[in-house]
Amino acid sequence: MPTYHFIKKDLPTLEGSISMGYVHLPSQTLGMDIEPIPKTSFDEGDDMVWDSYSSWIMKHPSALYEFEKIMKATQNKKIVVFLDYDGTLSDIVDDPDKAFMTETMRSAVREVAERFPTSIVSGRRREKVQDFVKLDGICYAGSHGMDIISSVSSNRFGGQGHHRRVVDEKGNEIVLFQPAADFLPKVEEIFNLLTLGTKNIKGSRVEDNKFCVSVHFRCVHEKDTNTLEAVVRSVLECYPDFRITRGKKVLEVRPLMDWDKGHALEYLLDTLGFDSSDVVPIYLGDDRTDEDAFKMITTRGEGYPIIVSSVPKETMASYSLRDTKEVMQFLQNLARWR
After folding, report:
1. Cα–Cα dist 9/87, whole Å
2. If DSSP codes are grouped into helix, strand and coil, which group holds residue 182?
3. How far is the CA of 321 from the CAs of 48, 159, 282, in angstroms?
4. Where are the alpha helices (DSSP H) in 198-323?
């Protein structure tokens, strides 16, 4: 049974002032868990080590070209589909509030969900993802899996303490699983501090994703990225039980706990009743946080982790798709496979 590892310490009093885009806080770091960030351009793509796309694609072949092979291997087994949102179902855009999926993509997801249990697993606020997707009959996991909505609860994960039965706007009784609920007050504090601390950094955007905070810098001038990094690091000095991870032009501030998209997959497989050897999970994602899900499937030894990327990068995915257009084609093929 998975366990949660929370770091609980007495936090220093938040002192100092916020001015001119910088946050001045006590200097001790108190053991923060922060990924190294390159000083010039802290983007996910900076860790590429492959010489060419052609050499990379040999190790991570196209899921479209290998589609029949994949499907033949799943015969007499139960397919369960998991999908990231940004960069997978919708293109990456400058304004995160305008990351709309196309109607054609929505139709493809709907067709897949009519045939296979389907879940959306995103770093976004769950309600935001639901508003983007606009489909019933699927499960939604937001905040990197720290906010999951389903029809039943799980005794394997977190006990009943993190489960809450509620009634949705349509009158249906649902179960909310929120293992990071205790962190919510601190997340709100961090969001407010980062919003204030970055207000003078042109092009920056701080997004409240409920159990995590996203600091977008896609529209920030390169000369200001170090300043943005300094603001985020200084705010986190007083929050040792949070960590910083990074994705595509975004810094993610998350609780330091043993929970990620990989654990979310395990939870959803369990609650959906598909935690058995005859189940084949298929996961499509494009970002570094999706690697936790890829790792879970690889460790499980059954399933297909598929990365969405047009550039070579280190990944635990077995297969690849170049972009959202190929994702849509893959989903259409999956829905119509006989």
Report:
1. 37
2. helix
3. 17, 37, 13
4. 225-236, 261-271, 291-300
Tell me the pLDDT tens digit for each residue of 216-232: 999 999 999 999 999 99
- Nearest alpha carbon to residue 254 among 186, 197, 195, 307: 186
Asked if 258 is an active-site residue, the reply is no
Which of 269, 271, 286, 275 minimizes the C-alpha distance to 321? 286
Give per-residue pLDDT as tens, 241-271.
Answer: 999 998 889 999 999 999 999 999 999 999 8
Q: Specify the length of the chain in residues.
A: 338
User: What is each CA distance from 102 to 46, 51, 134, 282, 311, in whole angstroms?
Assistant: 29, 34, 11, 22, 23
Question: Residue 173, exposed/middle/buried by CB under 10 A (0-12, 13-18, 19+)?
Answer: exposed
Cβ neighbours of residue 181 closer than 8 Å, sequence gap 6 or more? 162, 211
Task: Give the Cα separation of 82 and 135 in Å (integer).
Answer: 14
Strands 250-255 and 242-247: antiparallel
Q: Which two tokens stand for residue 113?
A: 């969900």
Burial 245-283 (b: 16+ CB within 10 A, else e): bbbebbbbbbbbbebbbbbbbbbbbbbbebbeeebbbbb
The DSSP-derived string for 26-56 is -S---S-EE----SS---GGGG---S-HHHH
Q: What is the DSSP letter of 238?
A: T
Which CA distances in Å does 172 have to 117, 137, 163, 178, 337? Answer: 19, 12, 16, 19, 32
**Largest Cα span, the chain:** 64
Q: Is 231 exposed, middle or buried (0-12, 13-18, 19+ CB in 10 A)?
A: buried
2 within 8 A of 265, measured Cβ to Cβ: no
Which residue among the candidates 33, 43, 47, 84 is catalytic per the annotation? 84
Alpha-carbon distance of 54 to 155, in angstroms, equals 45
Tell me the pTM: 0.82
Euclidean distance between CA atoms 79 and 1, whole angstroms? 24
